[in-house]
Amino acid sequence: MQNIQAVYRLNGKNYLKWSQVVQTFLKTKGKVSHILGAEPEKGDPKFEAWDEEDSMVMAWLWNSMTLKISDTCMFLSTAKDIWDSIWQTYSKVKDVAQVYDIKTKTTLTKQGNSSVTEYANALQSLWQELDHYRCIAMKCSDDAATLKKIME
């Protein structure tokens, strides 16, 4: 992607942050529907313009990944196919090991020589990442019980 720093290039370990950066970038360009929505039919008059835009989004996606990762999805047909393939491979939603790792990092994070603000920011970042991995299906009558189980 044109303006995304190399630190956000998908490397296999930073999917969560990478996906957030990519979605935000695509929203600013008005192209997020290419990774989330459906494509028009090939006979549709809008298909040709959509296809050209989709090719641009595909190139942005490939350029936002390491070469090894982009090679794995180089021959997929649409930006959505690329997005879904990468999600399937690198998203770790409901990954118990990942949740444990984040909880461990949270426990081991110390203020040390950091300012209070830097320390709080480090913890907040870990908590936000942990929230991503917690898929909570809430139902009105069961909310308290569900939350209690999660907190245990």
TrEMBL record:
It comes from the Eukaryota. This is Retrotransposon Copia-like N-terminal domain-containing protein.
